[in-house]
Design goal:
The chain is of the alpha+beta class. The protein has a domain at about 105-240. Helix content is about 45%, strand content about 15%. The chain is built from 17 helices and 13 strands.
């Protein structure tokens, strides 16, 4: 910099015009460096992505290959399943609880009672093989691995209601279809869209009895099917696997672990070689047993525990012990697994189940961030899938006469009010969690309803259960909640009243 300043002063003394031109050129070059990421210099010479294209064109060429690789990792990689399993386990888990929210509590109870019957496998699944919770868990997993799944509404008489659901894999979308069902529409990779880009139906492949796809495909209107996938760009029409950003890293981890495993197996072997000072001494080479036809390979000479043996004159023993890489592999895999989980919005502890490096505060913070990640997917599932299924369920129940609602068709929205409560989370430190909830309730920061919902419970059911258990305990003279009983009257102790 000092050399440049001296040179500028020298040029300015000789030719002020030349010096001004040099300064203007330097400033123009600085202005071109607004974005280093857009430069094509030495550091970015190998970074040459394809020019900007629509999401449909960008994804179409790689969609099937990415899906096949994601499924391969799902089948064969424990690292991949360490991400997939907690995702499904925390988004759905043991199920999402339905709460009918009409103004009539009797009607709410009736709806929820029929719902508990309908979600059984023989009633909700068109194949009669999976319960509703199992179907939803499969849908979430297929969306995560494949990128999306189709949920068809099927109207049959096989269950208690004339309504069942069928899961259809995205592979069955007929991408070769070019003929639209409606005039002025366009078919894009099996999805028929109107001039505004809104889907109006889906073209599904028809399969023969031997499992091979037929010549024609069937058209399903958009009202009878739910396409469950993530749309990240306005021009996106089809799905892309959510593992796309992590597939390469998981593959690298698997390859590395395979190489380390082979090397460790070699390192675990003790190889002993016997050398002779005069190889020609003793029996001739032509008379060696292993040189005879049919005896090629290992001759059966081995070491046994506690063996003591004399060596012939001129013989020596050399032991080969390969170096191992087990120690450094652990740190490498831990880092890669942390990055793989971070790419999916999950903490290292969630994907690895390794809690050796966290305390209560860091574990709690990681859990909060993970819950936000799961919460986004739960909202997606509830808004696009569960709400739609529930509304069709109620309408089918009314049509079948299982639910009597006078004036239902005049104001359907009033009777379709409901809420979904995801499964609750377990406490990391119960004492700290209970004290925090107690303080939050006393200060008005949280309500009893909110706390129950975080545990995946219906607050009305909780109060009912507490009331029933308390009444039964009083009859038996059992002090369930630390209360003092005097005849049939319960009185709080002085210490509790002071609290």
């Amino acid at each position: 910099m000092m050399t440049i300043n001296v040179l500028d002063k020298l040029i300015s003394a000789i030719s002020p015009k030349w010096a001004m031109q040099r300064d203007a050129w330097r400033q123009s070059q600085e202005a071109l460096r607004n974005y280093d990421a857009g430069k094509n210099d030495r550091l970015n010479s190998g970074w040459t992505p394809i020019w900007n294209q629509s999401a449909q064109i960008t994804d179409k060429a790689y969609r099937d290959n990415i899906r096949a690789r994601a499924r391969d990792l799902e089948r064969n990689s424990d690292i991949a399943n360490s991400i997939i399993s907690p995702w499904v386990r925390n988004v759905v888990g043991r199920g999402i609880t339905l709460q009918a929210k009409t103004d009539d509590e009797t009607l709410n109870s009736r709806i929820e009672s029929i719902w508990k019957q309908w979600i059984k496998a023989r009633n909700c699944d068109v194949t009669g093989m999976q319960t509703f919770n199992e179907l939803i868990r499969m849908a979430v997993q297929r969306k995560y691995v494949d990128g999306g799944i189709l949920i068809a509404k099927v109207y049959t008489s096989a269950g208690i209601l004339p309504f069942q659901i069928q899961l259809i894999e995205v592979d069955e979308l007929d991408s070769n279809t070019v003929f639209s069902y409606f005039k002025n529409n366009t078919v894009v990779d099996g999805i028929e869209i109107n001039p505004f880009g809104k889907p109006v139906g889906y073209h599904i492949k028809e399969y023969q009895l031997d499992g091979n796809p037929g010549i024609q495909s069937r058209f399903i209107p958009v009202d009878d099917i739910i396409f469950y996938f993530n749309k990240s760009r306005p021009s996106q029409r089809r799905e892309i696997s959510q593992l796309a950003q992590t597939i390469s890293r998981i593959r690298d981890i698997n390859s590395f672990m395979e190489a380390v495993s082979v090397k460790e197996r070699i390192a675990a072997c003790l190889a002993v070689f016997r050398t002779k000072a005069n190889p020609d001494s003793g029996p001739g080479r032509g008379s060696r047993v292993d040189a005879l036809p049919g005896n090629a390979g290992y001759r059966g000479i081995s070491l046994t525990p506690g063996m003591i043996s004399d060596l012939a004159p001129g013989e020596d023993i050399r032991v080969v012990t390969p170096a191992n890489q087990g120690g450094s592999a652990a740190d490498f895999v831990r880092l890669q697994q942390r990055l793989s989980g971070a790419g999916q919005g999950l903490s290292y502890e969630t994907t690895s189940r390794d809690m050796s490096q966290v305390n209560y505060s860091s574990a709690r913070q990681g859990l909060i961030e993970d819950e936000r990640t799961y919460g986004i997917e739960q909202d997606n599932l509830i808004e696009h899938v569960l709400h739609e299924i529930y509304e069709t369920f109620v309408i089918s129940a009314v049509v079948a006469g299982e639910i009597k609602i006078p004036g239902f068709w005049n104001d359907k929205r009033q009777y379709l009010q409901h809420e979904w409560v995801p499964q609750g989370r377990k406490w990391i430190d119960p004492q700290k969690e209970v004290n925090a909830n107690k303080t939050a309730m006393r200060t008005g920061q949280r309500t009893f309803q909110q706390i129950c919902m975080e545990q995946g419970r219906d607050w009305k059911e909780v109060l009912t259960e507490i009331s029933q258990a308390q009444a039964y305990a009083l009859e038996k003279g059992v002090d369930l909640y630390g209360w003092i009983h005097q005849s049939k009257t319960t009185v709080l102790p002085a210490s509790a009243e002071n609290d």
